[in-house]
């Protein structure tokens, strides 16, 4: 069984609502066995295996100004929803396609909604996934992952 990749996204919602850039206001980390490049920035590059489950978790840094993760889109294409999105969630997940070329890099955009469903939408562009082949002749080692509710599960890519 392949271990999921967990990506934690910490966001200074107030700074983004004031029009500041994601640089210095969005902090992303993953739990990849190889570790992501540019960890702690909005330009995180996370290694992922084809077919691996990827989970994003959002944590607003100001508890009085909420934001909700409403989706993840890749290379300008939103993946098809497995079901209607729940707009007040802090989690999103999807599977990396199995047909991707090793070494290929796919940028993505996180979409956040603030305040209410009719509130402002914020897009965070810059992070990406880089696809790696599983280790030859070795199973992918299991690692514990956080348990939590998910809003949506969909295949990723395009």
Description:
There is one protein chain. 30% of the residues are buried. This protein is mainly beta. The two termini are 25 Å apart. About 13% of the residues have low confidence. The protein contains one helix and nine strands.
Low-confidence stretches: 80-84, 141-155
**Helix tally?**
1
What is the CA-atom radius of gyration, in angstroms? Answer: 15 Å
Strand content: 35-45%
How would you characterize the largest beta sheet? 5 strands, mixed
Which sequence of SSEs, written as H and E, runs from N to C?
EHEEEEEEEE
Tell me, briefly, the overall form. Answer: elongated
Strand segment tally = 9
Strand order of the largest sheet: 2-1-4-6-9
Distance between the termini: 25 Å
Global mean pLDDT: 77
Q: Structural class given helices, strands, pairing?
A: mainly beta
Helical content stands at: under 10%
Sum up the structure in keywords.
mainly beta; 9 strands; 4-stranded mixed β-sheet; 1 helix; 39% strand; 5-stranded mixed β-sheet; 158 residues; single chain
Layout of helices and strands:
Blueprint: E1 5-11, H1 13-17, E2 26-30, E3 45-48, E4 53-60, E5 67-74, E6 91-95, E7 105-114, E8 121-131, E9 153-155
């Amino acid at each position: 069984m392949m271990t999921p990749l967990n990506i934690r996204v910490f966001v200074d919602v107030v700074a983004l609502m004031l029009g500041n850039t994601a640089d210095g206001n969005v902090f992303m980390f993953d739990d990849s066995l190889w570790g992501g490049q540019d960890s702690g920035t909005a330009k995180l590059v996370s290694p992922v295996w084809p077919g691996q489950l990827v989970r994003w978790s959002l944590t607003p840094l100001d508890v009085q100004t909420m934001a909700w993760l409403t989706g993840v889109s890749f290379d300008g294409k939103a993946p098809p929803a497995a079901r209607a999105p729940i707009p007040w969630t802090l989690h999103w997940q999807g599977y990396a396609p199995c047909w991707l070329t090793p070494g290929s890099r796919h940028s993505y955009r996180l979409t956040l909604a603030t305040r209410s469903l009719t509130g402002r939408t914020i897009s965070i562009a810059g992070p990406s996934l880089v696809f790696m082949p599983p280790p030859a002749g070795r199973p992918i080692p299991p690692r514990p992952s956080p348990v939590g509710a998910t809003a949506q599960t969909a295949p990723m890519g395009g």
